[in-house]
Amino acid sequence: MKNILRTVFSILIYMIIYICFIPAAYADEIASGEWYNLQWTLDDNGLLTISGKGSMHAFVDQTGFYWPDVDYNDAWHEYGDKITKAVIMPGVSSIGNFAFLYTSLESISFPKSIDSIGQLAFGGSNLSNVYYEGTEKKWKSIYIGEENEKLLQCAVHFNGAITINKSKSGRISSFVDGEKVNVSTEGKLVTLVVTPTCDDILDTLTVTYRGTDISVTDNSFIMPNGDVTVKATFIHTPGEAVRENEIQPTCIKEGSYDEVVYCVNCHEELSREKKQIGKTAHTTGDPVRENEVAPTLEAEGSYDEVVYCSVCHKELSRTPKTIDRLSPEFTVIYDANGGTGSPESQTKIWETALTLSNVVPERAELTENFLVTLDANGGSVNPRRMTAARFTSYSFKGWNTKADGSGTDYAPGDIYTAEEDLTLYAQWEETIETSPVWLPQPTRNGYSCFGWTVGLDGDRCFNGYYMPDKDETICAMWVKQDLILPAYLTTIEAEAFEGGAFSYVQLPETTTLIGSKAFANCENLTYIYIPETTGIIARDAFSGVNGLTILGHSDSFSEFYAQRNGFAFVAVE
Q: Are 309 and 284 within 8 A, CB to CB?
């Protein structure tokens, strides 16, 4: 809609310019013709009107030069002394070389469609005024050929652009003769309408033309010959200052932030001031030892306990410390590490080897019971609760200087020679035995259970023995009991069940091959159990079947087939 209004306004402006060239009395046409793609008429008031589409052909002969005595194909040049005014109509995109050479032309009107003016287009004319439909910025983008001093020295009258500087506090609209515009001709009274967007009050309204403010009275101004910029300022209600772009200080560098004040009504930024934040105190790191001298039996040792800032690493303190003289005796402690019956601690004498104890600790067997709750999921099952068990026994492997076994190994009776205290941790080898539950077969009228799963959305299905590692509730998974094939069947022939209406198929454990289109177009088929013995499945065995889930064993050919052909797969254990 804005583009349509802008186009209509441009046409109206150009009609006004055109009318300015027409005298009050009716003028008679005295000559007319065509110049290549353009048409022209000349009236007895000296007004030349040129219309058409595209570029104006240059007035040159085959050598590229203008010769006054050359026949210019019925153009307007032979009436040059009678032409005082010219109007170029919209659609003409250029002025040709020598177009108005040696005419009596005094003024000319250009449309916005003009993008170039040829060499010596106005040489020898009396041109003094140009009326241009576009803006000053647009005029400056037009290519003007050489030797057009007349054009460059005359007064150019533009349709000036009215640029509104946007503000969050309000909207500004410009009107001429009651119509909303964003361009206007020179001399027009432009009225500015300011609509605040909140409770802010208009403070100033300025109009700038070529860097200078022009007079504004009662929110109106006279349009100059060129583009203008309109700006409004408002009396705002400042809110509380807020922090933005905050940079935290450290012990080596100051921080900073912007203290910003916004209007509480329109949220326009009113002020922004850079603030500094002083350096912080140092951050104390963990103390470290430096310059350490080891103690001996005869003398104490020493070291410096040094504290550094953990941020800038500056030394904050240095305290001398002493280390007690070495004791001539050292203690070996035994930790059963979950067991019982550790050996008594032993004492090692300086420079005397110690034989480690041969006493071996023990560790009781661990029994864990896990409750399995059976959810028949619409069917019935007995029993509903069962208990599985896990038995862990421990055998002693030896000793280690780390509880997790990552240190140095020692065996009972080993020789210890180091001159330092020692703690040894028992290391245990686990042997795990389980007592799983045997899952009963649930029943449900019209359905077949293809297994149990942990939760209704489990991705792993199992039957027979089940060993959990925690208390769990498992759910029966059902499919409608549609097609259960006999136990002796080994081959499903091609197209054997094509188009069948069943939703579930259970193949016997003897099945080895499923032929081409064996279950093609079985639109209701939702689940099929394929045993581990099946090693050949035709690529199109299930063509036309959507939403199929294949039940089978992990790492079986049925799982590979499902993945390769885009079917869902649930592992049955």
A: yes
Which H/E stretch holds residue 137?
helix 136-140
Cβ proximity of 469 and 368 under 8 Å:
no
**Beta strand pairing status for 504-506 and 483-484?**
parallel
Model pLDDT for residues 184-229, shown as the tens digit of each residue? 888 889 999 988 876 777 888 999 998 999 999 999 999 998 889 9
Query: Which residues contact residue 203 at a Cβ distance below 8 angstroms, ignoring those fewer than 6 apart?
Result: 232, 233, 234, 235
What are the helix and strand counts (H, E) for the chain? 4, 46
Q: Taking CA 119 as the corner, what is the angle to CA 114 and CA 123, rounded to the nearest 5 degrees?
A: 105
Dihedral sign, CA of 347, 352, 358, 360?
positive
| CA–CA dist 530, 202 (Å, integer) | 82
Reading the block at residue 517, the tokens are 């289109």
Summarize pLDDT for 69-106 with one digit per residue, the tens.
Answer: 555 545 898 899 999 999 999 999 999 999 998 899 99
Instruction: Specify whether the CB–CB gap between 438 and 464 falls below 8 A.
Output: yes
Are 446 and 397 in contact, with CB atoms under 8 Å apart?
no
Q: How many residues does the chain have?
A: 573
Rounded Cα–Cα distance for residues 59 and 65 (Å): 8
Alpha carbons 9 and 46: distance in angstroms, whole number:
28
CA distances from residue 55 to 15, 70, 92, 129, 131 in whole angstroms, order as listed:
22, 21, 6, 22, 19
Neighbours of 166 (CB within 10 A): 11
Stretch (H or E) spanning 201: strand 201-209
Is there a contact between 535 and 557 (Cβ–Cβ < 8 Å)?
yes
**Distance separating alpha carbons of residues 76 and 503, to the nearest angstrom:** 91
Q: Within 10 A of 368 (CB to CB), how many other CB atoms are there?
A: 13
**Could you tell me where the DSSP H helices lie in 39-87?**
none
Joined together, the tokens standing for residue 324 give: 């007690």
* Token pair belonging to 361: 């600790």
User: pTM here?
Assistant: 0.39
3-state SS, one letter per residue, for 283-332: CECCCEEEEEECCCCCCCEEEEEEEEECCCCCEEEEEEEEECCCCCEEEE
Spatial distance between the Cα atoms of 56 and 35, rounded to a whole number of angstroms: 8
- Calculate Rg over the CA atoms of the chain: 50
